[in-house]
């Protein structure tokens, strides 16, 4: 992610200052290896792009990959459209920039993700630099304005406590004192390539469901891992998987907070007993 910020700041101090609207451009096919924008909804892009990059293989493709970790977090449903409108602008008779309102919507959702990983929102993407009028620019979709507002959301947080070989009482107390408790197998890829570095393998099993929704919880936990990369990196070694009991709460603002994590090894009989006793346990 540090490379992502540095590349953008050095290569595009100002998206429109780096690009001269009067210069000649050419249309090229978005290459298959440019995975970030391959399924954006159009097949041809303009070069130079709005960041001033003109070399497809030497600049555009490798630098587009620097955005991948941010997009994989799902921080905003139109983040890909916004970023690709700058990296790989659609090839039409006129230049289509992102509207200021779209920039603001994406920034407000995605800047906290960058901040979680120690980076500010790039000055190159200062929303004041994009057009305020929405008749000749890429605007936000109305259908996304209330996107998933009623669902718990992953957010940046301090790393939760990880407790090895807990007592049965400790596990039961954790079930009692938190909104939810689940078991999930966390996997970390050794080489992520086009896929996220972290994923939740298989089904998430509920011990205490609380406010979590069965159809959303696996995705919710995976997005939490991708946002909280520093926390996730200490939970699983590269190329390995680890089963965990995860306990936590959903805050008043709808964000999910993991609080106490128990690695579940085969030797941990106390966790197995606690999960069985929980069905009949009174807090």
Q: How big is the Rg? A: 22 Å
Q: Would you count the extended β strands for me?
A: 10
User: What is the approximate shape?
Assistant: elongated
**Count of separate DSSP helical elements:** 9
| Distance between the amino and carboxyl termini | 43 Å
Task: Return residue spans where pLDDT drops below 50 for at least 5 consecutive residues.
Answer: 1-19
The largest sheet is: 6 strands, mixed
Relative helix content:
25-40%
The helix/strand class is: alpha/beta
Average pLDDT value? 87
Order of helices and strands: HEEHHHEHEEEHEEHHEEH
Strand content of the residues, in percent? 15-25%
Task: Write a structural description.
This protein has 283 residues and is an alpha/beta fold. The protein contains 9 helices and 10 strands. It has helices at 2-11, 56-64, 68-72, 79-87, 100-116, 168-177, 217-227, 229-232, 269-277; strands spanning 26-29, 44-47, 97-98, 137-138, 153-154, 161-162, 180-188, 198-208, 241-250, 255-263. The strands form 3 sheets. Strands 5, 6, 7, 8, 9 and 10 form a 6-stranded mixed sheet that branches. Helix 5 (100-116) links the parallel strand 3 (97-98) and strand 4. Helix 6 (168-177) crosses helix 9. The two termini are 43 Å apart.
Task: Give a brief rundown of this model.
The protein is of the alpha/beta class and 283 residues long. It has helices at residues 2-11, 56-64, 68-72, 79-87, 100-116, 168-177, 217-227, 229-232, 269-277; strands at residues 26-29, 44-47, 97-98, 137-138, 153-154, 161-162, 180-188, 198-208, 241-250, 255-263. Strand 3, helix 5 (100-116) and strand 4 form a beta-alpha-beta unit.
């Amino acid at each position: 992610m540090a490379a992502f910020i540095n590349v953008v700041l050095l290569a595009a101090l100002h998206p429109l200052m780096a690009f001269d609207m009067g210069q000649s451009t050419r249309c090229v096919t978005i290459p298959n290896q440019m995975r970030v924008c391959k399924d954006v909804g159009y097949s041809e892009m303009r070069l130079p792009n709005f960041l001033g990059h003109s070399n497809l293989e030497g600049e555009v493709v490798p630098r587009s990959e620097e955005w991948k970790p941010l997009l994989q977090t799902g921080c905003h449903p139109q983040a890909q459209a916004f970023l690709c409108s700058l990296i790989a602008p659609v090839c039409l008779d006129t230049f289509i920039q992102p509207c200021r309102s779209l920039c603001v919507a994406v920034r407000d959702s995605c800047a906290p993700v960058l901040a979680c990983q120690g980076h500010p929102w790039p000055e190159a993407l200062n929303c004041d630099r994009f057009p305020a009028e929405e008749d000749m620019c890429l605007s936000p979709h109305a259908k996304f304005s209330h996107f998933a507002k009623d669902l718990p959301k992953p957010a940046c947080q301090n790393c939760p406590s990880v407790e090895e070989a807990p007592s049965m009482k400790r596990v039961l107390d954790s079930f009692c004192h938190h909104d939810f408790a689940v078991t999930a197998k966390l996997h970390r890829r050794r080489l992520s390539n086009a896929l996220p570095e972290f994923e939740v393998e298989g089904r998430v099993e509920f011990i205490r469901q609380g406010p979590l929704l069965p159809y959303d919880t696996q995705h919710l936990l995976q997005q939490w891992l991708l946002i909280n990369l520093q926390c996730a990196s200490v939970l699983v070694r590269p190329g390995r998987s680890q089963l965990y009991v995860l306990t936590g709460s959903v805050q008043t603002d709808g964000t999910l907070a993991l609080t106490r994590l128990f690695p579940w090894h085969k030797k941990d009989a106390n966790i197995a007993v606690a999960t069985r006793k929980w069905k009949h346990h009174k807090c």
